[in-house]
Protein 1
Amino acid sequence: MAKRARSRSTNTGNGNSRLKVRDKRTLGQLRNLADGVVTAANRSRDPYVDIPTRSLSNVKYSPRKRIIEMGKNTNRRQLFNLSQAKSYMQTMLVGSGCKRLIEQGKTLSIRGLYYMLKHQIEGTKENTFEEQGECDTVIEDTEVLLDSLREELHLYADKRGDMVGNITLIDSGDEIDCSRMGSGGYAIPSIVEPEVIQFDRKKTTAKFVLHVEKGTVWQRFNEDKFWKKHNCILTHGAGQPPRGVRRLLNRLHSELKLPIYCVLDNDPWGYYIYSVIKQGSINLAFESKRMAIPEAKYLGLRSVDYSRCDLSSSVTIGLTDNDRKRAKQIASYAWFEKKKPWQREIQMMLDNGFKLEVEALISKDISYVTETYVPERLRKRDWLD
Amino acid sequence: MAKRARSRSTNTGNGNSRLKVRDKRTLGQLRNLADGVVTAANRSRDPYVDIPTRSLSNVKYSPRKRIIEMGKNTNRRQLFNLSQAKSYMQTMLVGSGCKRLIEQGKTLSIRGLYYMLKHQIEGTKENTFEEQGECDTVIEDTEVLLDSLREELHLYADKRGDMVGNITLIDSGDEIDCSRMGSGGYAIPSIVEPEVIQFDRKKTTAKFVLHVEKGTVWQRFNEDKFWKKHNCILTHGAGQPPRGVRRLLNRLHSELKLPIYCVLDNDPWGYYIYSVIKQGSINLAFESKRMAIPEAKYLGLRSVDYSRCDLSSSVTIGLTDNDRKRAKQIASYAWFEKKKPWQREIQMMLDNGFKLEVEALISKDISYVTETYVPERLRKRDWLD
């Protein structure tokens, strides 16, 4: 693969040459990391790396960009420091593992990388990693350190979520027409970077993306051919959308300029999913700039839907103490705090004393959500922002 | 839809006409159920239904058919019996809900059906159902009562699992060429009955199915284009495969005569997944005849792989007490009990004192599992049965 692509990427949809350019950049960053060690050693100085701090204290909401960002704090990790030597070694190990993957043109799950790197350190009884969690932390460190998404390091998490609709894309050289994907749909991959997935703009007529929370709700929309009637793309993320789905939504929005509308449950978890799609997650704030979609809209369910849609009390689910606690936390997030409609929304759920699942609309009619609820909200441009 | 299909199905791949035939049968069974009530009432007798007992005591392994089957015990559910009246009502309610779905040509998630049927009974403060679990039980009752899979009742569960490989199928009229599905793959739907999915035998060249446990492992096999090199189909079920995946494997085996090879973790959970694919599950024994694949082979991982593949102790995971308990339970299943290779397999895991994930093979080489492990097992016809 390396030999085939000699020219610089021209963004023509040639996966291999683009891969090469991006990989070159990532490899360069990995080499810089290693060179730092050599340079320090040559000068008889202690090798170290300064890793941006991934903690709540170093995360803030940028009102201008409308995403969660990391601050400038870093933690120094030194080789010659008893409490830091192991994590220093682990950082280098992850770096070398990713280098191997990129050079071989292969990708691996984070579980796979853990197994690849785990071994007993020669002459000791110590393992390089004891648990997956240790390795995951270092992977995240490496991402921020190199300013590379883990997908650029050739790593992936489990995949979930499907897509159908009026879009044609190229996935690893195969043309996928998402308007001809039957009842099953196209399974959204873990890695949807431009090297893997290119959009065919000419064959893509969709005007917006409808993102729903659950696969079962997605099936209802697909069966009713909502995407055909409304000329859109239909996605779901099986709950909290995994990175692949979030990144794909981001690319559909930023590259194809498609609005993203979310249909989620009227509960703290639904609010939270929206918040992560919109502004990014606190844990992984460094990826917000390529994952978050500040313009994403929350179409529903809303607390007002109980009376607005004339739902029966039998389809409500009482809030638990934990729901109330989470709702208040979310209401105090910087990005919700200053929005009166959101404060009213969350307060009304607390006043209602119950939550509502999207499926509750089925009590009106099997296709109420696809034929009435969503079309009406769209027509009236009635959503939360 | 009903009007379009007048002739009996001729198995020509016309989804609508086939749907009609199958739906007619299911509707007939639902009407019989309702007629029973009317007949009893007309004769001034107590209405009742006899529901096959879904408990361990009424489940047995058939050595001849090599699947788990239900016995002949039934429970009578009477309308004029204080303790049974509610579940009698619920059974009729589920029956009428499914009738509505079939007549409208729509399908619904089991969560959706619960919401559709849940309401306060007029003049009381009693709800028809309090919780999803109540409704699920009655759905299962209705399945056995009518000898219909829930998919035939137009109900579906959440979907998981993907497919790629040398097979072309028709899903709801769309031709899906699974050899051109990129890195994402075709998302296996919940309902894969012949009305929805038809195989294109001419365009399907695959010689077998490789089913792996996890999506991340599936991605490794897909990236290495294992299915292309070995002319096969590659599936996963994101852990314990959901009904859609099991039914699809069953159809691939029974209709296309493809052998099914499973690559699962070397732990009690992996053994259990294999056992469900092969003989069916105890809970849902009545569906075994259309779900189970007695000829499915267990390709690995095996307990012997630790020494056979020369793995390092650092990739082993110690057995917990619960693992040991589960392993002994599984060893005593009727369908494993008489098979010496399986008894040796499970005993060796207990003797090893550890389990092994498929990903542990990555410690040998990133593509060891796709380029060495599985090809060797297949070539040597080395599997457990």
Protein 2
Amino acid sequence: MIDKKEILKAYQFRHACKLFDPEKIISDEDFSFIIETARLSPSSLGLEPWHFIEVQNKELRSKLKEGAWGATLKLETASHFVVCLTLKSSYMKYDSPYVADFMKNVQHHPEEVAQARRKMMENFQTRDFDLTDERKIFDWASKQCYIALGNMLTTAAMLGIDSCPIEGFNRETTDKILKNDFGVDTDKYGISYMIAFGYRANNPGPKTRRPIEKILTWKK
Amino acid sequence: MIDKKEILKAYQFRHACKLFDPEKIISDEDFSFIIETARLSPSSLGLEPWHFIEVQNKELRSKLKEGAWGATLKLETASHFVVCLTLKSSYMKYDSPYVADFMKNVQHHPEEVAQARRKMMENFQTRDFDLTDERKIFDWASKQCYIALGNMLTTAAMLGIDSCPIEGFNRETTDKILKNDFGVDTDKYGISYMIAFGYRANNPGPKTRRPIEKILTWKK
């Protein structure tokens, strides 16, 4: 059990950090721990549809700027810079070899359990959530990656580390750069988001949020 | 700063709880705190595209079962049951009155800053992320709600509270129930997920995950 006051401090500490102190470097232990909480994050059917690339290489960081208009300063100053790839439909469709292999060799389901789960997944994808084209399946898998995103940002804040989640990039341009310069197989993976991690150069302004009564309704 | 060992304990504690002890009730203080960490979660452009309904009412819980094949036992046994609604495109499109009002009255941006941000948002939605129809905008807004999901599940675990995130429902049927029985304006809101919160009735099996080297690539 963790004290609520300590948790709240981390939520107050976290903000979308625009500029990092380039002299301050996150320890390997802390960075590994942030990724560990992504690894342990839940996902639909437990399929972990994510892969993270940590970009230290300066040339590759520079390349990313071509598509990522919202990341320029962060690519220049962040201690660690993560690209989150999401598994595409060739992996995430209910009848893919990936799903069959995952249920068998990662989740260790007996074949009859795996079959039942794949049938449930077929109903879910085709009937319940209308995940009936590439884009819809990608967006569904991407949502799972945003669970890991929330956890990584909060973990960082709990360790006193700043971060900035980034959607400020052109998806098509960035996927091309990932294919050509990073060797990513873009038939299988697409980018969901980027995150910069480091230590703030400046203090943030006040946090704005709607009050609780605007976001919560009780049905008693 | 929170000790890494304490954080890790919460990640190990959390699992998709299938059955809750119906006698054990979450305190108001703890439940409010879980929602508070959703409220303080980040979202794209800070637009907080979420609204949560906490369902205590037994008749309404029963109604939800009609569409939610994956929630039956949780609706019967969970201490608290949350439906997460996501704001649809009539709210979340760059040129909506909602966005303009939000930037002015929640985020307190001066008009010239708000205008620049709406222009950036137009480019982002129409050019960079191809958010060009209702469904694509909904899925993008929904992704933001999954950030809050990750945070709520982790907060709960840090307080020793069990949870289960649920996508096991028919979206169309459930949206109809939300419209007819909950009074939700489904032109403006659609369901993203449900979460059951409470205290476990049984102990979970071992957690399965791919090893770190399968989910992280370093570019040094």
